Every structure is written in structure tokens, then in C-alpha cells.
């Protein structure tokens, strides 16, 4: 099957198609196409596009071929390990892998090789997935960018911090890649690159060694809702959730499209920072939803939604500041041993933490809990919340200029993504819009634990817009 993403000059919703794993399964079962065949296709795309896109920091092609051959034998004998046996997957380089270095996009960790598997990596191996390599991340998962380019236009950012994972999927290099999010690091890159992506409910997928921050989650980028959902659901079945949290639940297969009864539109503090084209795009989505007979409400129609909007003011600063406090000990230890191995942009997080202090952190925690209480109170009134995945399409990024102050958000503004992180709720990027030949995602959010239902609403919305 040809991969149109290799030749497309502009992104148009529905006009491109990269091979998904889900559609390959019948061929695996019949033997007309194998996991090794799929891996070879992926490696061919990587060979063609990687020199431009720079999605990978480490490739493990020979071991991946061995894994794919083993999976091919299991499919031939009818003893596959899971529904994702043989799936080529990329792993964000924040997560430990026993057979590849984990350098976290940071000079201080160059060559670091802990030879351990993160929980999600362990689960993928148990499920028979083929680990192709490690994808580029921003420095320590923060704002300082790596070398990755947006596959749709190399002058634009792929987003961060899951830059390599988003770009690898968008370029058709792998059908699925693992990402992580604290502020907006899964959903924003997906919006910029045109991927399906899920940031699950807080704690729904075990983070392994990545337990330091209270708002970080592991999720997936994919070329289809089926691959996005099934991969994460299989993983959660093996790892469970974080300590004290329920695991991601629901069917193994992605739930079918389901029409919501009531949809709430959220503007958040990002509305004033959104481009006019992005606003027009989300307005078209809202009109299509309403035309389908769904009740559409916002702050003007519902006082609790209005209160929620008020509670979400300052959400981006709260998320960034709390995370700086939670990450400060790791940063202190890095700087103590390698003060020149971290960028000045990342070092500023230590100043933010010191200015906050324990009492300031506790104050922000109370503000966060109050916002969660308001959001939970809307469970009976709202099925799904809809907003933009980013203020606009991917911004251009050509590196720092010595004449200018460092950009605040060189990988893009996370303002539309921090609400879901702050509230600990699931969010999905649905690739439904395009602006100026670049993707622009629609972000949907639901109540904590309602991840499966949210996926079904996302499928419905995608089908609605495709038919419009």
C-alpha cells in the first residue's frame, strides 16, 4: 500500500493515509502480509525521510527484525501474544529501555544506558510489539526543543515534548509511538502533526520510574483511533495503573462511534491567543455537532461551565509552576554533577521552584482541587467537552537568535492542553482540521475514568466531519 504521506505537499484532512496496524491484522492472520513485512515498510520510510524529519535519536533495526520475525512465526502458528503482536512502535526517549540508551534529550545524559525497561516498554514487549527505537524528546521533557521537524513542513515545529513520537507517526515511520504529557506534550504535537492521540486519565497507565510529577501521563500517537486505543488498553491490562489509581478500562478494541447527547464548548484562557483561522475551524466543528441534533452549550448557557472557565484562568502558569517545583530535585542533582549539561531555559525552572516555595505549592494544589471539584460537578450535564488542540497550526522554529530573548514556547503554546493535565482528565486529539496546509487538531475531554466513552465520541466526531 503506498504511503501518501511521503509525497503530500499540503495536509488536508482525510486526504492522506499511512498503513495502520489494525487494518493489517486480517492479512497477518491469512499470511498474505506479515509483521516482518510491515517492519520493512516502516524501515524504508525511515530511510527515506529521517534525514529531514529527525524523529529518532536511536534506532534498533536488527533487534526489531528479530522481534518481527518472532511475531511472524507466532501469527503463522496462531499463538500471537496479544492484539498488538507485531506492531512497530517508537518509544519517547524519556522512558528507559534495557537495550537502548535513555538520554532524555539532555547533554547531561549523553550516553546514559540504565539497561532497564519502563513499565510501558515492558508491557509492549510482553504483548509482542516490535520496539523500533527511541524517538526524540525535548530536553528533559521540557520546553527546550530537539532537532525534530514537522513532516508536513520542515520549517515548522512538530511540537514538544513528544516531538519525535508525533513526527514519526505523522511521517508514516511507525503506526504507533509512545508519548508523555505533563502540560501539553501529547495533545499539542498531535494537533501540529495530524495524529490521533490520547492522554489518558491521570494514573490510568503505570508510569514506571516516571512518578515524580503529579500531572504526567503516558499515552499514544497513532494513525488511527483503533491503534491509539488498543495499544494503550493492552498495556494497561499488563501494567495496571499508577500506585493508588485505577487502570485504563474498557474494551480492548476501540469502542465504536457513539453520538453524545450534550457537548460543551470550552474557550479557556487560550481563546484570546488562538488564531482567527483556528477559531473559524472550531466554530465549524461546533456548528456541525449542533446540526447533527446534539445539544451544544457553553459558558453563556450554563453557570457551572462559566465557573469552570473562570477556574481555568491561569491554568498554564499553575501547571508549569507546580511541575517546576516537583522536578526541582532531579534538576538540582543534574546541575550538581554537570552544570553545563543543561540549557539555560531548563535551568530557569529551578528559579521558578525557589520563588514558589512549599507554601506556594500547597496554595496551587488547593486551587487545582477546587477546579477539579467544579469539573466533576458537570458529569450529569455534559458528555464531552470540545476545544482546540492548539492555538493554531505548528509555529515556525529556526532556532534561537542571539539578538533576541529566548522564545517562551519554542515548540508551541500549551495553553489549550494544560486544563486536561491540571484536571487529571482524559483528552484525545481528533485530526479534523487544517489551516494553511498544516494540521490543526480538535481536542475532546471527558471525566476521569471515561476514556473509552471519550474515544467513542471522538470517532463519531471524525465521521461527522468526514461526511460533512
Automatic annotation (TrEMBL):
Domain spans labelled Amidase: 38-454
Xref: InterPro entries: Amidase (IPR000120), Amidase_dom (IPR023631), AS_sf (IPR036928)
SUPFAM superfamilies to which the protein is assigned, alphabetical: Amidase signature (AS) enzymes
PANTHER family: GLUTAMYL-TRNA(GLN) AMIDOTRANSFERASE SUBUNIT A, TRANSAMIDASE
This protein's name: Amidase
Taxonomic placement: Bacteria, Bacillati, Actinomycetota, Actinomycetes, Pseudonocardiales
Amino acid at each position: 500500500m503506498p504511503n501518501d504521506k511521503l509525497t503530500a505537499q499540503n495536509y488536508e484532512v482525510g486526504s492522506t493515509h499511512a498503513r495502520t496496524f489494525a487494518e493489517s491484522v486480517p492479512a497477518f492472520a491469512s499470511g498474505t502480509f506479515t509483521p516482518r513485512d510491515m517492519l520493512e515498510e516502516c524501515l524504508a520510510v525511515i530511510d527515506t525521510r529521517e534525514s529531514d524529519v529527525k524523529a529518532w535519536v536511536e534506532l534498533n533495526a536488527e533487534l526489531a527484525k528479530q522481534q518481527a520475525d518472532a511475531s511472524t512465526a507466532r501469527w503463522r502458528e496462531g499463538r500471537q501474544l496479544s492484539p498488538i503482536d507485531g506492531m512497530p512502535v517508537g518509544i519517547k526517549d524519556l522512558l528507559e529501555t534495557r537495550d537502548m540508551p535513555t538520554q532524555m534529550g539532555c547533554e547531561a545524559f549523553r550516553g546514559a544506558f540504565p539497561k532497564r525497561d519502563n513499565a510501558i516498554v515492558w508491557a509492549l514487549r510482553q504483548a509482542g510489539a516490535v520496539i523500533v527505537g527511541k524517538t526524540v524528546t525535548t530536553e528533559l521533557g521540557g520546553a527546550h526543543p530537539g532537532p525534530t521537524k514537522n513532516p508536513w513542513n520542515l520549517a515548522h515545529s512538530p511540537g514538544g515534548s513528544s516531538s519525535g513520537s508525533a513526527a514519526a507517526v505523522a511521517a508514516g515511520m511507525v503506526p504507533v509511538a509512545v508519548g508523555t504529557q505533563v502540560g501539553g506534550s501529547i495533545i499539542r504535537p498531535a494537533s501540529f502533526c495530524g495524529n490521533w492521540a490520547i492522554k489518558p486519565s491521570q494514573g490510568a497507565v503505570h508510569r514506571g520510574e516516571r512518578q515524580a510529577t503529579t500531572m504526567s501521563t503516558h499515552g499514544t500517537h497513532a494513525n488511527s483511533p483503533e491503534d491509539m486505543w488498543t495499544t494503550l488498553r493492552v498495556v494497561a491490562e499488563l501494567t495496571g495503573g499508577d500506585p493508588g489509581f485505577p487502570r485504563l478500562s474498557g474494551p480492548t478494541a476501540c469502542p465504536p462511534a457513539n453520538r453524545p447527547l450534550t457537548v460543551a464548548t470550552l474557550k479557556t484562557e487560550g481563546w484570546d491567543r488562538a488564531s482567527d483561522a483556528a477559531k473559524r475551524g472550531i466554530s465549524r466543528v461546533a456548528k456541525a455537532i449542533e446540526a447533527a441534533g446534539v445539544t451544544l452549550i457553553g459558558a453563556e448557557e450554563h453557570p457551572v461551565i462559566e465557573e469552570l472557565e473562570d477556574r481555568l484562568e491561569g491554568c498554564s502558569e499553575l501547571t508549569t509552576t507546580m511541575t517546576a517545583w516537583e522536578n526541582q530535585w532531579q534538576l538540582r542533582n543534574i546541575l550538581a554533577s554537570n552544570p553545563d549539561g543543561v540549557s539555560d531555559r531548563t535551568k530557569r525552572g529551578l528559579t521558578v521552584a525557589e520563588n514558589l516555595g512549599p507554601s506556594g505549592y500547597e496554595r496551587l494544589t488547593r486551587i487545582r482541587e477546587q477546579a477539579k471539584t467544579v469539573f466533576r460537578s458537570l458529569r450529569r450535564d455534559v458528555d464531552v467537552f470540545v476545544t482546540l488542540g492548539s492555538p493554531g497550526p505548528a509555529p515556525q522554529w529556526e532556532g534561537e537568535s542571539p539578538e533576541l530573548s529566548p522564545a517562551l514556547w519554542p515548540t508551541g503554546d500549551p495553553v489549550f492542553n494544560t486544563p486536561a493535565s491540571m484536571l487529571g482528565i482524559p483528552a484525545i486529539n481528533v485530526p479534523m482540521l487544517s489551516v494553511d496546509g498544516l494540521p490543526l487538531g480538535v481536542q475532546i475531554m471527558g471525566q476521569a475514568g471515561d476514556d473509552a466513552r471519550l474515544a467513542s465520541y471522538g470517532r463519531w466526531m471524525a465521521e461527522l466531519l468526514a461526511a460533512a
